[in-house]
Amino acid sequence: MFRSRLAWLYLLTAALVWLLGEFVGERTVPTLLLAYAPAVVWLLPAPFVLAWTVWRRRGVAVALAGLLLAAWGAGLLHWQPQQGGTLRVVTFNAARGMLGTPERLAAALRGADADLLLLQETNFVRPDFRGELLARLPGYTVRTGHEVMTLARLPVLSAQTFAAPGSGRNFLETRVRWQGQNLRVVNAHLGTVLVSSALRGDLAQLRQTRDVRAEQVALLASLAAREPGPVLLGGDLNTPPRGAVYRRLRQAFGPDAHDRAGRGPGWTFPGLFLRIDHLMAGGLTPVRARVLENAGSDHRPLLAEFLATSPPLSASSVPGPRPSWPESRVRMSRAEPKERGATEEH
């Protein structure tokens, strides 16, 4: 059975890494690092292992199994059927405008033809960047939180911001009307797992960022459970598609659009071969998802299309909302000056 120990070692290591990253994940520091490392790393030994087994003429099938497992874990074999949807949503981290121009960002976002644009890191470095960007995105109503912005071509009913624990950021919940029903849209930017702290030996800092993120995810899960009806989460979640945080967000909000309707690895942070920007929805069916071209950021825009999962309920059959999150965590969106192009209604 173990005629080629190297091939078996590679296969078993790839399987163990996947299992630990998926099911243990953030619970311990070593498995957190496994979960958040670029999955393509585990493909790097494959050519050498395969060449060795071919030369030795033993263990080739085992080496190929290890290669396929690593490729599957990296998302390279991911392929889902697709069709057009009636709701188009984009999430995009604009990187504070440091890597692009308003013209470039606006052109990419207009090309997506999205009903909802969920932008993060919109605390732009240039004071006039925001106005120039919105002037080039006519037809959208804008709601803002601290460094997040949601633009909608749908009727906007209300918006609230929620302080993200352990940071100066906000989560922005916007209610829109779509196909005869209310849709809650949560725009979030989770804290980053400072893997660099582990390289410096500062495990305490790594644990602190992990714990802060756990509090932020708990708040998001509470928002999802506040009331019935369709709800959508989008944003730079700084979370790969594995581990406890990712599972909890899917359980709270619904399936990941790329998982259900995407193709390929879906790297939204291509510099490190990572998929950390997500769109998840309950009460909606994702039917197509794809990563768009570079729009002037270190992140790529993620576009997903959805269909309604079920027909809208009548007003008399919808229960009233549950009590909201404590007032200390909630702030109604404040009025902003109107810009040319996109409008900020109140």
From TrEMBL:
The keyword DNA repair applies. Residues 309-346 are annotated as: Disordered. InterPro entries: Endo/exonu/phosph_ase_sf, Endo/exonuclease/phosphatase, TDP2-like. Keywords: DNA damage, DNA repair, Hydrolase, Magnesium, Membrane, Metal-binding, Nuclease, Transmembrane, Transmembrane helix. The chain crosses the membrane at residues 31-52, 59-79. GO terms for biological process: DNA repair. This is Endonuclease/exonuclease/phosphatase domain-containing protein. It holds the Pfam family Exo_endo_phos. Residues 90-299 form the Endonuclease/exonuclease/phosphatase domain. PANTHER family: TRAF AND TNF RECEPTOR-ASSOCIATED PROTEIN, TYROSYL-DNA PHOSPHODIESTERASE 2. Residues 328-346 have a biased composition (Basic and acidic residues). Coiled coil: none annotated. The keyword Secreted does not apply. One of its GO terms (molecular function) is nuclease activity. It comes from the Bacteria. Its cofactor is Mg(2+); Mn(2+).
